[in-house]
């Protein structure tokens, strides 16, 4: 289902007085974090409208559980796995490929934390670039933990231990 269609459907469920509760079945989450925020917000709006929200997960990973935590109740089949792992990031570096092809990029870096050109100039991540990525991932993990804790009425420490 397209994101826009899902958001319209959730909005109409929120506004329709005949609808008292919703059930969202999540098979696989292929959306990015920003899209998850939109769907999660729509589910929270339905909750705030006084309607019960239920989410059924076939499997639970970071993204699907984050989405589901906005609902009143979360359901998983007995065979489901809970796959909560830390966040990660991958970067491809093309320096060796460019050298192999005889291409010498002409790029300039101005400042330690301006690392966009690194993927063409280096074989691996620089310290400042790693520091930036780690900071972004740490911030995202902190926000994820805080939102899950808020919606599940537990402490962030408990969420971190999951």
UniProtKB/TrEMBL annotation:
Q: Name one GO molecular function term.
A: peptidase activity
Q: CDD domains under this entry?
A: S49_SppA_67K_type
List, in alphabetical order, the GO biological process terms annotated in this UniProt record: proteolysis
Give residue ranges for domain Peptidase S49: 50-161
Q: A Pfam family for this UniProt protein?
A: Peptidase_S49
Name the UniProt record assigns to this protein: Peptidase S49 domain-containing protein
Species per Swiss-Prot/TrEMBL record: marine sediment metagenome
